[in-house]
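re: that chain from earlier
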Amino acid sequence: MFSRRSFIRQGAALSVVGSALPSTLLAANPKAKAKSIIFLHQFGGPSQMDTFDLKPNAPDAYRGPLKGISSIVPSMPIGEMLPNMAKVMDRVTIVRSVHHEMKNHNSAAYYSLTGYSPATDDQRLRDTLDLFPAYGSIVSKFKPKSGGVPPFISFPHVIRDGSVTPGQHASFMGKTYDPFFIGQDPNSTDFNLPELVLPSGINPERIANRKEMMSIIDAETKILEKSSKAKGIQDNYDRAHDMLTSKSIRTAFDISAEPLAVRERYGRTTYGQSCLLARRLVEAGAAFINVYFSSQIGGCEGGWDTHGFRDKPMYPVMKNHLLPITDKTLPTLILDLEERGLLDSTLIFWAGEFGRTPKINNLSGRDHWPQCYTVLFAGGGVKKGFVFGSSDSKGAFPATDPVRPEDLSATLFHLMGISPSTEIKNNFNRPFPISTGKVIDQIIA
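^ sequence. v structure.
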């Protein structure tokens, strides 16, 4: 049996073995329009009817109690609880015709995180190495990291519906391409990453020597043990070395250095500060960042799973929690990136695993609805103030230009300069294209 110390020492060798399994076949790559992607995953499934695909002429049972308001773009009305978003709709593209067949959270969320449909729609879908890797894992393989910052970073939750939702890590590609995961709350007053704190008396110059570094890891395994939530760090010696020596990494994660006014702009919530941290990581050179809105699928402090319950009816939760946080944080992230000259090179992708039923249920809520929903893009090479696709008069099914999650994945990779037809091989040496969809050329600027 390996001890923990010997396991740490073997990390680099293990990661090389893992990365050798899924050898790749490269296709001709398009020119990259985005250097980074921030994937704002809205776990639970936002209601398209109350956000970006209003149906003011639908019957009451479909329309709901929230009204619409005009946005800065006449053709893009928006829900009344999103007045700040209304001011920035001239910076975004919305796609109103996304659809698929997965009605359960774990299967649908896996689909939304990888662009690959599971074989069956099963709430009990389990995370296994047979399933496809996360977007960020593929990006981290084909886009070199910059400035010592991990190319793929995710936070602040591991999402789950009972069991952990698949699609959040590298799967059969090997742990080298797993995200650097942060399980702490960036809104906490004591937010820090213990694995980035050097032992007392040790400086970066000393551990630049590899032999010295190994002795420090042996003597100071508590650095890694204190942060079990930084999953995978012990499996890769080089990553451990980079994390301990890189000033840019330590600086990027020091969110306390932000002016208080900036932190307030984003909102003093877990999600707000997570989006601020995402902007800092873009500045530091991270290629793909997953920000999960919530670890849960519903409830006043959870995600978008707004079925409606006796003690938690849908619309008070929407009005008091979900929509105000979204309206505080999403437009701030867009404008902050723009003000810093980063929006054109950073793609924001806002999406859940599905939408909500057009018709309100008998609990005054909306149920799962993958048949037609809306996603949002901003920056990173997409058009501004643009709508692609449409739903029918009740928001039930695509009326024009239907889009599937495969098409979204193909578009994400294309914008990052990675051909969607690039192949990776699984543990059985079977080749798979990283996406089976078609690039949505119409939304690209």
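The chain has 15 helices and 19 strands.
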